[in-house]
Amino acid sequence: MCVHGNCLPIQIQLNPITDMLTCHDVARYFLTLMSEENGDLISNLKLQKLVYYAQGSSLALLKRPLFPEPIEAWLHGPVVPVLYDEYKKYDSGPIPRPQEVNLERYDEESQALLNDVYSDYKVNI
Q: How many domains does the chain have?
């Protein structure tokens, strides 16, 4: 910005990609919502679909991606490869609830979207 010939640098604070949630953050959030007591368990396949629906919902409703990792079309549905690799050790069995999740990472808008996606799709996929 220049005023009377004196130029000063302007720093614009954008939301850097490092502040964006990752696919791992989204997955951990969904895993905290499951109710093992009620038989509400999440397999890797189900988790992949929930994360896919969350990304699509965010793009459609919030006009922004939730996470930067790519999604690929695989034989049994959409997959985030790095997320698949993290949870493939559970095969088709249930993934345990994470011990700790930092909920401060999730803004209110993202939490509401993830809650809605989980509520809408937890049984139907």
A: 1
